[in-house]
Amino acid sequence: YPGAKTTAETGNTRFDYGEIIPEISYGPLSVKYSITYTQDYFGNNSDTLGIGTNKHSRGSGYLDVSWHQPLGQGWSADAHYGHQRIKNFSDANFQDVSFAVNKELPYNLLGSLSYSKAWDKDDYYKQYSNGNPN
After folding, report:
1. How far is CA 15 from CA 100, 130, 131, in A?
2. CB 35 within 8 A of CB 60
3. What Cα–Cα distance (Å) separates residue 23 from each residue in 34, 61, 63, 66, 84?
4. What is the spatial distance between Cα 88 and Cα 68, in angstroms, rounded to a whole number?
5. What are phi and psi of 48, to 5 degrees?
6. 29-36 and 75-85: which strand pairing?
7. 37 and 18 Cβ atoms separated by less than 8 Å
8. Is the pLDDT of residue 134 over 60?
9. What pTM does this model have?
10. For the chain, what percent of residues have pLDDT higher than 90?
11. CA distance 82 to 95
């Protein structure tokens, strides 16, 4: 997210960061792990989160386990599990899951019906705000 930032009541927050994403795939299953090599993951540090002093989140990681299975006649199914670990700020860790059923449609369109859910420890994200509405 080169140059990504916001100006809010809490001051300027930079969301730009770099990551390395190794991936292993076999058949319908893929596993990848994104690891942040820049100082802060998505602007997470002591200043933006109000936790500790001079802490940063380099080394944060996101595990992504995904499955895609063709079912025949243009139908397919997808499932996903993810776990975000934010180094030095474990209260901000979260997990997410999703499941989708897809159908290929005429004119290179794809229709999907999906369910997704994310959750975190002790409803951290219901309490946290970086000054952006919603």
Report:
1. 29, 11, 14
2. yes
3. 9, 13, 10, 11, 16
4. 33
5. -80, -30
6. unpaired
7. yes
8. no
9. 0.82
10. 63
11. 5
Burial of 115 (0-12, 13-18, 19+ CB in 10 A): exposed
What is the gyration radius of the CA atoms in the chain, in angstroms? 18
Q: Residues near 39 by Cβ (< 8 Å), separated by ≥ 6?
A: 45, 56, 57, 58
Angle at 11 between CA 59 and CA 8, to 5 degrees: 105
Q: Which residues pair with 100 in a beta bridge?
A: 78, 114
pLDDT in the model for residue 89 = 92
Q: Which two tokens stand for residue 117?
A: 């859910």
Residue 15 pLDDT:
79
Contact 89, 50 (CB under 8 A): no
CA distance to 45, 66, 100, per residue, from 110 (Å): 40, 19, 12
For residues 23-28, give the mean pLDDT.
Answer: 98
